[in-house]
Amino acid sequence: MTRLFTAPVLSLFALCAAAAQAQEISPQRLSDITRELASEPYAGRGPGGPGEQKTIDFIVGQFQALGLKPAGDGGGWTQDVPLWRYQTEPGGTFTLNVGGRSQSLETQRDLRIETQRPVERVAIRAAPLVFVGYGVTAAERGWDDFKGYDLKGKIALVLINDPDFEAASTDAVSGKFGGRAATFYARWVYKYEEAARRGALGMLIVHETAGAAYGWSTVVASNGESYDVVRKEPAKDKLLLQGWIQRDLAVQLFKDAGLDFEAEKARAKTAAFRPVELKGAAFSAEYKNRFTRLNSKNVIAAIPGAKRPDETILYAAHWDAYGIGPPDASGATVRPGAVDDAVGVAGVIETARAFKVGPPPERTILFAAWTAEERGLLGSEYYAQAHAARLPKMVANYTYDVLQTAGPAKDVVLVGAGQNELEPHLAAVAARHDRTITPDPRPERALFYRADHFSLAKRGVPTVLMMAMGGGAELVNGGRAAGEKWVEDYTARCYHLTCDRWSADQDYRGAAQDVALAFEAGRELANSARWPDWNPTSEFKPVRAKSAAQRR
Among the four 59, 226, 241, 356, which has the fewest Cβ within 10 Å? Predict the structure, then answer.
């Protein structure tokens, strides 16, 4: 009897071994796909640029070859993403009036100004200025900087970061917003959105390098250009004027209005803070706002769930890079975006391939390549808006954005660690591969709020961001020091620049390791009935809780 079963059993083992090998994430395939997407004919993959259609065709072709199902508009492979490109035209006038004294301001030097409404001309005359602290409303943390103050017709002045960023350990606010670790409330996009919800005419954020995590040169790098998705009610969703003001200018403004900037900043770190009108101070602006509509595309595919197809797990990366720019020292103009984020797209394609060689998952697996991440997470934002009704049944999102190419690592540096229950699950998967999770060593940089997963996170979907820029991994060859050197070199020399190319000396084994962990973690969720949640301290837990009934 034993002999009769020997051959079939061995065949079964062989089949299982072959299937397991087929599901391995291939460093060579990651490299090959990255090389293709970062090559010259793709022209830096700028949204609406000369390389977009070629990029879309390539990704669609990869999904088709794998036998995925199209999950875009109308049963196709793509979702149209209508965008506005805005440009604050030079030659505008900006004026501060304080105590009867008028001061002319210059964009780029004193201010960074933009308007994300399709209006040709902005005219603001003598709008009152109101200091609203950090511009935060967080009921779950017992915090409200606005106290019901009416901001209609007014310009709000606000501090960057959140109220406990610089708090001493003895301050009552200490730890209420995560300390040095940034929360969503620290981000400028939140502050603009909150001011718009409260009817403000505009908002100026006081720039401080430590709180922003970048200098003034980064603030003004766009030179008045910005992008947004096409909205049904832009006047409701967007301020007429938004931007930044130099700290030294703000300090002088407060002084001229009879206030001490540091004293008011200290008051803003208390829950008792109330908005402060800068008496006798007004802001005027008049400038032209050029806007151009363009259409870009997300690419979306699926493996339908065999048992619970309405419950989804999403793997995503952004296909766009910075396109063609000014010549660098060598004369190169194409910014290829190999690491940011062609390798992420390669990771999504490899994840899809790994799922397809296994048995059909019980839950649906979605695969997306977003447009316009580099313009403000706009492709993922548009998707999240269009599919808001489906997000309560999205189990998890794994986003690949900047995977390291320095070789195998003993750990994964987890950006935004401490947010949700996907993290200990990922740690358990990593442990099975003799790897560990290292919490984000620089949480004050707020990288968790600066990638496409955030469009889903802020609507309650639990997310994991696989991003190598959070901190140097502990590489098998060279340890933590080598990992930090890779991050520093890439950030300083190649990030968003012509240097971000594919090269033969890049080692994609570390990227493959990280993609493999996300694949394995998602596969386990896909074949379970689990609903991971946000941690009690996360600002996204109350958002998710609102849709709890849909997951019962």
Answer: 356
